Amino acid sequence: MELARPEFVPDSSLSRTEMEALQTDIADAGVFTDDLGSTFGQPPVVAGVDQAFDGEQATSAVVVMQGTEVIERTHATEPTEIPYIPGLLSFREGGAILAAFERVEQKPDVVLVDGSGRIHFREAGLATHIGVTLDVPTVGVAKNLLCGQPRESLSEPLPAGERVPIEADEDVTAPDGTVIGYAVQTRQYDSGSRHINPLYVSPGHRVSAETAADVVARHATEYKLPEPTRLADAYADELTS
DNA sequence: GCGACAG
DNA sequence: ATCTTGTCGC
């Protein structure tokens, strides 16, 4: 795949202020409504991307699927220049991800990115950064909530299939109350003391919050994580061990 | 100063 | 993310 917006490639040498300014531009370029293109296959081509680290090296693994079939697997390793800073994750992991996608032949209909998309202080999380830079539809899939406010309390376990809107609050640039994503319960235990936490799904680029949640729910039937994400996670771990 | 915060 | 064995409950 090719870079659509080279000016948005994450540069870890920027100052924190410059990084935040770039995110503001990225959010402006981001599309949080459905624009998945007319090439949506039968079934759609869905890619998952995830990273694993070893010391100063970040390995990004991409798994491309169509239905239940893996049609491509690629990876790239890049040095990590900066530590993890909440809100600036893309400047730590984005380089490795873009390097991996440079080697991807099959253009996916949608990419599932580990982390937040619009659920971000400046509405420019990792999924949005990658989506806008490559101009590919992306969805953010996070295991924890970075910011925003669940419309309903999530202290009680949600049944599988349920979803709760995540709304913008004062910590997010979007107008208060804007639905910036969903807590999506893909799996749940039938009963007992233990329970499964939901995933926090948000639009990255060219996808609405509703469609983002739909895509994740549709691909996460056997396990909590959607299959492309799960396989990319395992592949990244395998490459680092 | 305190709190809060994806991976 | 990563360091790490067993263990409890589906």
Which H/E pattern describes the elements? Answer: HEEEHEHEEEEEHH
Distance between the termini: 27 Å
Give the assembly state of these chains.
single chain
Mean pLDDT across residues: 96
| Unreliable spans | none
Q: What's the tally of helices?
A: 5
Cα-atom Rg, whole angstroms? 17 Å
The count of domains is 1
- CATH 4th-level superfamily: archaeoglobus fulgidus dsm 4304 superfamily
**CATH architecture level-2 label:** 2-Layer Sandwich
Count of extended strands:
9
Catalytic activity: Endonucleolytic cleavage at apurinic or apyrimidinic sites to products with a 5'-phosphate
Pfam families: Endonuclease_5 (PF04493)
Protein name: Endonuclease V
Site (Interaction with target DNA): 84
Could you please describe the fold and organization of this structure?
The protein is α+β, with helices and mostly antiparallel strands and 241 residues long. The protein has a single domain, classed as archaeoglobus fulgidus dsm 4304 fold, CATH 3.30.2170.10. The protein is 26% helix and 25% strand. It contains 5 helices and 9 strands. It has a 9-stranded mixed beta sheet, with helices on both faces. It is globular, with a radius of gyration of 17 Å. The structure holds 2 DNA strands.
